[in-house]
Amino acid sequence: MAGLRTRSAVFALTFTLVSPALAAELQIGMRSEMVMDPHFMWSNSNAAYYVQTYGYLLQPDEKAQMQPMLAASWKAVDDTTWEFQLRDDAKFHDGTPVTAEDVVASFSRAANLPGAAAPYTGAMAGIKEVTAPDRLLVRITTDVPLPPLPYQAAQIPIIPKRIATSASTADFANLSAAIGAGPYKFSSYVPGDRLVVERFDGYFGPRPEWDKVTFKFITDNASRTAALLAGSIDVADAVATSDVKRLREDPNVSVHNGTSDRVIYMAMDTERDRSPFITDNTGVPLEHNPFKDIRVRQAVTHAINRQAIVDRVMDGLAVPASQMVPPGFGGYNPDIQVPAYDRKLAGELLAKAGYPEGFGLTIHCPNDRYVNDARVCQAVGQQLAQIKLKVKVETLPRNVYFPKVLDHKGERFSFFMFGWGSSSGGEAEALWQIMHSYDPEKQLGAVNSGHYSNPKFDGMVEEALKVLDAPRRHALEQKAMEVAMEDVATIPLHYQAVVVGTRKGLDYRIHADESTLATAVTTSR
After folding, report:
1. In-domain check, residue 252
2. Are residues 295 and 353 part of one domain?
3. Long-range contacts: 187-194, Cβ < 8 Å, 24+?
4. Angle formed by the axes of helices 294-303 and 343-352, to 10°?
């Protein structure tokens, strides 16, 4: 009997290792749910889904460098004209070929979708016209020279023209319009629970290893980690830094981590004379917005101990940030230092600004979007309380938070968290997306929710955007970054890490843009 049990165990193990069903299906626990309409909410978390399903002209590689996808090649024809040559073998999931007309229609829908929660305004900035001179050629003309154009063009998910010109957001949610050209096609979608995709055998690129992928929406960090430890998922997206040690000690789990291109920062309302979430110490709204005074902004940035947040909240898996892009990007200025933590100086600056006893402030943050976002906000609040600010921290789920933050005509917030992933292959788009004055006509400042405005800085950014020569452009961007950081346009906190957990036996290629992709998961060889 003992020999029989041994042979049975060997057979069971062998079957487990070679079973195609087990080898071909993958379950990934995701921190955020996909917005099915590809043009409704522009965000990195959605882009991670879209690159696997809908597809783009270009796609970022592991180091955020742009690579061909639906476009086989691209070039600048002159200072204001770019051309993208499409692949001749790309097909949509319904079998129809991808053409330039589909690209034009997708760009048009992204630019004009009514009621979009986070429109693609920044991606369309400076684009004058998108045309289709022939079946496989896309021509984009710009108002002025626009060096980031390839990156911007790579932000627009591509769908068939017939869908782009007729489908509603609801049509995507029920999957009737959910047709893309990516490596996986849609199978089923249960809002709040899961998305199931299947390998698209007509995909032009490398054949994905997995026949079927289930993305489970597990927004709670602890629940995602528990699911990985229990074996109910194979991959855990965005592992909480506090769980890394425990996962590394489990022999059935592997932890993969690397540096991301995302800066986590605090932004302030510097526009309105009276800001809605600022009061005096008795709770009465202040008639004058303190953040319009640079001394108050300086006080706040010197009151924040970034290294302590990295060590105690991020468990060492982040790097204190000095500016709005990480090292290696065009506008990164090596001469800018992380602001010194100096509570005494912060108090003196507040007193000089007329607030020796501080003021009341509500800090708003998401609680399910960035790594440890709610805990980081609590830490910032505690540190600001030490310079006599009467702080209240309010956290909201991302589906509530971001529509409020990005509504330029709405109430907005007074002091709030945001994260920006600079996945442009080297360009400092934070300069024109986040810190340039909000200017719908020029399509600049699309994510400048605090409405910071500095004419000198704006002029420097606009000058840089006209320069196609990269070294010269980057030098101009570095100077602009220095001006913005000296003026405390924003308060950078840290560059966060990417941490993904997998069951033992799986390899994972970390992507700097924080995308957790089924195509990046392979069985260990």
Report:
1. no
2. yes
3. 187/212, 189/36, 191/33, 192/33, 192/217, 193/217
4. 160
Is residue 39 in some structural domain? yes
Q: What is the CATH number of the domain that holds 375?
A: 3.10.105.10
| CA atoms lying within 13 Å on the CB side of residue 342 | 12
The pTM assigned to this predicted structure is: 0.77
From the CA atom positions of the chain, what is the Rg in Å?
24
Exposed, middle or buried, 201 (CB in 10 Å: 0-12/13-18/19+)?
Answer: exposed
Query: Tens of pLDDT along the chain (525 residues)?
Result: 333 333 333 333 333 343 434 449 999 999 999 999 999 998 888 999 999 999 999 998 988 888 999 999 999 999 999 999 999 999 999 999 999 999 999 999 999 999 998 889 888 988 999 999 999 999 999 988 888 899 899 999 999 999 999 999 999 999 999 999 999 999 999 999 999 999 999 999 999 999 999 999 999 999 999 999 999 999 999 999 999 999 999 999 999 999 899 999 999 999 999 999 999 999 999 999 999 999 999 999 999 999 999 999 999 999 999 999 998 888 999 999 999 999 999 999 999 999 999 999 999 999 988 989 999 999 999 999 999 999 999 999 998 999 999 999 998 999 999 999 875 556 788 999 999 999 998 888 989 999 999 999 999 999 998 898 889 999 999 999 999 999 999 999 999 999 999 999 999 999 988 999 999 999 987
